[in-house]
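Troubleshooting log. The previous structure file for this entry was overwritten by mistake, so regenerating from the original sequence record. Sequence copied from the archived sheet and checked twice against the printout by T.R.
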Amino acid sequence: MSLIIQLRNGATSLGTGTAFVAISSHGPVLITNRHNVTGRHQETGAPLSASGTVPDALAIMHNRLNSLGQWVERIEPLYVGGTPRWTEHPTLGAAVDCVALRLTATSDVHFYAYDPGNPGPPISVGPAETVSVVGFPFGLTAGGCLAIWATGFVASEPTVDYKNLPLFLIDCRSRQGQSGSPVIAYRGGGAVALEGGNTSVYDGPVHRFLGIYSGRINSQSDLGYVWNVRAVGDVLGAA
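Regenerated output below.
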């Protein structure tokens, strides 16, 4: 469900990131961080590339239709006539590091989509409980184009907005390339603690989609930002 993306300007690669698919009322969209598509630091606006170049397209490694375990590259332009194609948060705009990009190059592609409106079982997720950032650190894969799971812990109350934004913090050793990763609570089955203090027994693995990872609070810390599922849903609804 996690897709590796390459940030490009013409034929030049500017780096890699992570994205995933969700389905809007207009069709499939790519969800990733705003700083991935702008090529600029989310807070300062400075170019992320040492050359000062910013991307004009994304190369996306999609799952190939009817061929599980195979992938196909598709290119999506980021601008039309100089106008950005991506959609930002409907009320907070550029303050939210999450965007939706309508997908147009979809031939021979199969979508494994997250649904912010139906994120999964109400698995209990509070401070010190485990969560996973599923993406591509340093552009690395776990074989083929499969993502790498980095697991850490919730570091702030998920139901309380951090900095008065739809954010919470996690403590996870994540690195560049994982920006745009889905963050999930994954449990292997058996007795699983649910919200409200209840427990349910599952025959196999279950997961709950929690939001999108957008990088560490600074280069010296393993604390990282997660824009919550509500923020992702708002962006998707505006796409």
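The two ends are 20 Å apart (CA to CA). Archived copy saved in two places this time.
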